[in-house]
């Protein structure tokens, strides 16, 4: 469960979706819709597990607060769009994803939200955090892009990562990073910060000292303060930039 308090009595609806990207890929998604929407849409980009229950629950928490939310899956091209259980072997499917394919799927989710919203944001986690920032450089017309513990550097695919694509970013950036992250170092975060500053991109990079990678997706009480602060920063970012 996301470390986000449920709002009792909030009137929302939700449903499973199958969306279609421009290249014909059909993929799973989960939509949560408030009865009293605030005009802001959120595309939720999961971690490497894809459309996991945690992110469906997070979509509900957004909708309780008035946001239209759609959480997407990454594996329509290789695993289809059917529901999967917790035993799904995701690593081979992650290896088959491409930046182009993921951005095509994000665009389909953006178009799903567009008729009902005045501003759309991406919010991603780990693998999704990186792709959330890349979405700001991919022509979706976003109002902002939020990433939790995403890697801003280049990866093994040889394609430029968020740091090298900073000059292409067309929306404000919020990065919520883990201070005790073995793979995403302070040097990587500092390089991202400098690149965004050099490109004139409005941004904030927050590092939670002592927090591990995926701190927002952990039940340990010792990360509750970081998780609560991160959640409040997300809501403030959405409302400020909408």
Write the SSE topology.
Elements: E1 12-20, E2 26-34, E3 40-45, H1 53-64, E4 68-72, H2 76-79, H3 91-96, H4 99-113, E5 119-125, H5 127-135, E6 144-148, E7 173-180, H6 186-199, E8 203-212, H7 224-241
Parallel strand pairs: 3-4, 3-5, 5-6, 6-7, 7-8
Antiparallel strand pairs: 1-2, 2-4
What features would you describe in this structure?
The protein is an alpha/beta fold. The two termini are 27 Å apart.
Strand content: 15-25%
* Oligomerization category of the chains in this entry: single chain
How would you sum up the major sheet?
Answer: 8 strands, mixed
SS elements, strand count: 8
Q: Determine Rg (CA atoms, Å).
A: 16 Å
Characteristics:
242 residues, alpha/beta, eight-stranded mixed β-sheet, 8 strands
Can you give me a brief rundown of this structure?
This protein has 242 residues and is α/β, with parallel strands linked by helices. The protein contains 7 helices and 8 strands. The protein has helices at 53-64, 76-79, 91-96, 99-113, 127-135, 186-199, 224-241; strands at residues 12-20, 26-34, 40-45, 68-72, 119-125, 144-148, 173-180, 203-212.
């Amino acid at each position: 469960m996301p470390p986000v308090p449920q709002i009792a009595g909030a009137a929302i609806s939700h449903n499973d979706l199958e969306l279609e990207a421009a290249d014909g890929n059909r993929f799973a998604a989960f939509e949560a819709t408030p009865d009293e929407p605030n005009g802001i849409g959120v595309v939720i980009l999961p971690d490497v597990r894809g459309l996991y229950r945690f992110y469906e629950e997070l979509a509900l928490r957004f909708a309780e607060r008035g946001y239209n939310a759609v959480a997407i899956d990454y594996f329509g091209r290789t695993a289809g769009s059917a529901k999967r259980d917790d035993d799904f072997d995701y690593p081979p499917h992650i290896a088959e994803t491409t930046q182009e394919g993921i951005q095509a799927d994000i665009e389909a989710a953006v178009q799903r939200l567009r008729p009902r919203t005045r501003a759309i944001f991406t919010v991603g986690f780990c693998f999704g955090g990186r792709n959330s920032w890349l979405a700001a450089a991919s022509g979706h017309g976003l109002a902002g892009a939020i990433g939790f513990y995403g890697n801003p550097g280049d990866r093994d695919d040889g394609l430029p990562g968020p740091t090298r694509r900073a000059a292409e970013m067309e929306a404000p950036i919020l990065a919520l990073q883990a201070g005790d992250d073995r793979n995403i170092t302070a040097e990587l975060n500092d390089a991202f910060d400098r690149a965004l500053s050099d490109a004139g991109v409005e941004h904030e990079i927050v590092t939670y000292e002592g927090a591990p990678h995926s701190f927002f997706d952990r039940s340990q009480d010792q990360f509750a303060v970081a998780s609560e602060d991160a959640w409040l920063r997300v809501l403030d970012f959405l409302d400020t930039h909408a």
